[in-house]
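User: I'm curious what two different proteins look like when written out as structure tokens. Can you demonstrate?

Assistant: Sure. I'll show them one after the other, since each token string lines up with its own sequence. Here's the first protein:
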Amino acid sequence: MPFVWAFIIGGAICVVGQLLMDVFKLTPAHTMSLLVVLGAVVEGLGWYDPFIRFAGAGATVPITSFGNALAHGAQKEFDEHGWIGILSGIFTVTSAGVSAAIIFSFLAALIARPKG
């Protein structure tokens, strides 16, 4: 059953993103930014952790989880180190994911040759 909920919730987040682009004519960049901010707001309200416990990968894989990670890291480091922790927390929590994205994108660019 956890797989079913992950599929439904993850799919619902993707449907919201697609509707934002199709119905409201938002660009992909605006849609992505809005979903990241939505994830940060939900984390700020303290609702994202229960959401993850319920939906599992359906809540941790979509772009909303990036906003969750940013807000979670900032909150945690703020509690430990004060105002400077807001910046350091954002970088600490997301550095591995961002670094992996840059490295894998670079490797893909070495292998693939775009047409055009």
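Here's a second, unrelated protein for contrast:
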Amino acid sequence: MKATIKWVDGVMFLGESGSGHTVVMDGPPEAGGRNMGIRPMETVLVGLGGCASFDVVSILKKARQDIRDVHTELAAERADVEPKVFTKIHLHFVVTGKNLKEAHVKRAVELSAEKYCSASILMGRAGVEVTHDYEIVEID
């Protein structure tokens, strides 16, 4: 896996993934930015959420669960002093579907956290307290 980062100006950068997709990263005005893009650490958090959500959806589809939506909310805390690393991250999965079996949802979240989501596992190994929970929304 590869990526490139190109400085635009101030504290704005363009990050390009090896697959050719680009993300704009910028800082707030007080840091010399223009608030034109996502912050670098927000990018890390979004990546973690995407990784875990991908796993949960894949696992639930394999379990033949009739999922209609998966919405993942992440809340993170960072250290007060430099380097301002993440200290705690909580992922809350809201799984919407028909006739969902709680055991399958619970297992999908556990498998993502413990086996499949490399971003979550990497954070945990780095000393970040990563927690997960879920709720199920049944539709008719």
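A detail about the second structure: Residues 1-38 form a domain with the N-terminal domain of TfIIb fold (CATH 2.20.25.10).
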